[in-house]
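Appendix B. Raw example, untouched.
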Amino acid sequence: MSIALAAPALALAAVTAQAPAATTSEISLRRIAVASVAPEYPASSVKAGVSGIAVADLVAAATGIVQSVEVLEAPDQAIADAMRAALNQWRFPAAPFPMQAKMTFYFRIEQGKGRVLNPQDMPGGPVFQPRPAAPTYTPENPPPVVKLPSLQPAKTIELRDENTTAITFEELQKLTGASRPTILDVGDRASFKRGHLDGAINIPYDELLVRAGIELRGRHPIVIDCTQEQNFHCLVADHVLKDAGIKDVRILRR
């Protein structure tokens, strides 16, 4: 009988292990983490004056244990190794399927000392609400009876071209001096390496929610280069930037 029960359990475990990871946001993954470890700033990097942003793609297995960490960007190899070592120690609640998200850290040198900061610790960074602790109930202290509210229609965000401001190459070339914009490429890193506009900075569109308020504060205007990117990604970027308080945003198309 124990063998009969074990076989389906093993089959279920195999299916769970092979299930594709569900992509979520860094904010969501940080919020549910039950154990988190910050990377150590390598002494060699501090001595060499190396600083900057590090981003990794993390996949957590359904068991909550980190399955893989791929460093996408780092100021040097030592920082990449430190980030990988730290993220491999993170733990998450068990889930019906694996979870995947990008994770971001800022490595800064202040007065000769290295500091590793989470996005929420940076000026303009996002607010990460910690996961509330589960209450403990007893027979003497039973859980309260909760009355479910009436269902309300979900709030939707319409991403439309009419809500954006376009700019042409000719208009872009006329902007100089204080009016010269920051050109933002929201494609992935591989696409950016293959080709981009001169002077453009690269923040992939799916990282803007965490990084925009930190790295684009005070930069006005911002031109999103949509000449090589999907229009939907540019509309998402436009919405995220405006939601972060950056109002002067324009989109450059072919």
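End of appendix B.
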